[in-house]
Amino acid sequence: MTLHTPAFPSHEAEKLPPLVGVIMGSQSDWVTMRNTTETLAALHIPYETRIVSAHRTPDRLADYAKTARGRGLKVIIAGAGGAAHLPGMCAAWTILPVLGVPVESHALKGMDSLLSIVQMPGGVPVSTFAIGRAGAINAALTAAAILSLSDPHLADALESWRAAQSAAVALEPVEEPA
Ligand code: RP5
């Protein structure tokens, strides 16, 4: 099912002032986080992408999170793997909603990422999603839902996306090549 194929190339969405910041700890996270940007693009939501590491580029993270709201971002989606403190540190510096995507790690299959993102102490929330691709897609859809609260056109687009998803589900299973 290819529901998140962009209606236009993702770079076109990036020409508009971004509403969603998609950050990740490493280039190696992109294979997961591109599912987020493809979903945002399919819904025509402008976004930006940045590699921002909590431990390798701490100053970049602080600057990004502290200035995000003032630059017009409404939601930040942060993907990280292993000791995945990026979403939590980001949330510490902004009151924007921070959606955390646990990237699947080699050593522990993403359980380390999941637990380190989801177990935030009370007071600094990070909304945490499933490990890997599903979480990356759902974080984008949740960002869309948040933005839809004040954007009726986006709400319509989200309704259409859901309808297309339903229409793409076959009534009966078929034999697939082994
Ligand atoms: C984290 O460490 C990143 O989010 C990434 O998932 C993980 C591994 O990074 P690389 O060693 O592949 O750069 O900071």
Task: Please explain how this structure is put together.
By secondary structure, the protein is an alpha/beta fold. It has a single domain, classed as 3-Layer(aba) Sandwich (Rossmann fold), CATH 3.40.50.1970. It has helices spanning 10-13, 30-42, 58-68, 86-92, 111-118, 133-148, 152-167; strands at residues 20-24, 47-51, 75-81, 98-103, 127-128. It has a five-stranded parallel β-sheet, with helices on both faces. α3 crosses α4. Mean pLDDT is 93; it is low at 1-9. Bound molecules: 5-O-phosphono-beta-D-ribofuranose (RP5). 5-O-phosphono-beta-D-ribofuranose binds at residues 25-26, 28-29, 53, 80-82, 103.
Keywords for this entry:
Rossmann fold, N5-carboxyaminoimidazole ribonucleotide mutase, 178 residues, alpha/beta, disordered N terminus, 7 helices, binds 5-O-phosphono-beta-D-ribofuranose, five-stranded parallel β-sheet, single chain
